[in-house]
Design a protein that fits this description.
Helix content: 25-40%
CATH superfamily: Vaccinia Virus protein VP39
Largest sheet: 7 strands, mixed
Mean pLDDT: 81
Number of helices: 11
CATH architecture: 3-Layer(aba) Sandwich
Radius of gyration: 19 Å
Distance between the termini: 61 Å
Length: 282
């Protein structure tokens, strides 16, 4: 059984390697994990080309959704991007929040942070900041963010409950998040769950869809809504790294689903204190 710190070290190592690759290399692997496929498409990611603020140089093809498309970002908002990578979603969020807003990207991989900061500096994005830190213990004060986004990151974190607790702490009352992530319906074969590369590839660290939604609700969020839900098909040439031909057939017939979901939820507005003074309105 892998410890949480061992898993984090594994992910940090893999994503340090990914930071040095180009998008085309990552697009032929499962979420950039290095388990190369002969299929010429990205297994997880959606197409950003129609989103304003998109910067191809910051897109490493590592996402599994378009959370910024659904995040309801307004001008002047403070937005936090969890697992910000090379800055892709942070830069789209910056376009939405405008010059009067602020975007904070958080990532624990130094190579990714360096690449994101170079991308921001090159474009003169003075209201985009990238901080090194663990999203289970964010380097951000409480009640600071209007919106939090994240793209295919929480599935990599062993302590997902801790991340949602931190999201709740950092959001302002009335703030909300839009997060794209990988979840499961049914149990993955043991070989895939235990495979290091598939963990860094966003699959083996995923949990059951209903458990994922329960974690969100148990941390106090309301208006929990699935904004997008799509099936992820892992090609046979990737599965064959972990399963025999017979096991692949059994897996496909098992009903187990790997899905990308984008979830929206809100932090409730704090209840007003009871009014008992002389100026209390009737």
């Amino acid at each position: 059984m892998e410890t949480q710190e061992h898993v984090k070290d594994l992910v940090r190592q893999k994503y340090s390697e990914i930071a040095l690759q180009d998008k085309e290399t990552n697009q032929t692997s499962c979420c950039g994990s290095g388990c190369c496929s002969t299929e010429v498409y990205n297994i997880m990611a959606d197409d950003y080309n129609e989103l304003e603020g998109y910067n191809p140089d910051a897109d490493l093809g590592l996402g599994c959704g378009l959370p910024t498309q659904f995040a309801k970002i307004k001008k002047g908002d403070v937005v936090i991007d969890l697992g910000s990578g090379a800055g892709n979603d942070a830069f789209v969020a910056r376009h939405e929040t405008g010059e009067t807003g602020k975007v904070i990207g958080i990532d624990f991989t130094p190579a990714m942070l360096e690449r994101a900061r170079q991308n921001a500096e090159l474009r003169g994005f003075n209201n985009v900041e990238f901080r090194q830190g663990d999203i289970e213990k964010m380097p951000v004060t409480a009640n600071v963010a209007d919106v939090i986004v994240s793209n295919c990151v929480l599935n990599l974190v062993p302590n997902k409950d801790g991340v949602f607790s931190e999201i709740f702490r950092v959001l302002k009352p009335g703030g909300h998040f839009s997060i794209s992530d990988i979840v499961l319906e049914g149990e993955l074969p043991k070989q895939i769950k235990e495979a290091a590369e598939m963990y860094a590839g966003c699959v083996a660290g995923a949990i059951q869809k209903q458990d994922y939604l329960k974690l969100i609700k148990s941390n106090g969020f309301t208006n929990v809504t699935i904004q997008k839900d799509k099936q992820i098909i892992v090609p046979d040439d990737i599965l064959s790294n972990y399963l025999s031909a017979e096991e692949i057939v059994i897996f496909k017939q098992s009903g187990t689903g790997i899905r990308s979901i984008t979830v929206y939820a809100e932090k409730p507005v704090a209840e007003k204190a009871a009014c008992c003074g002389p100026d209390c309105c009737n």
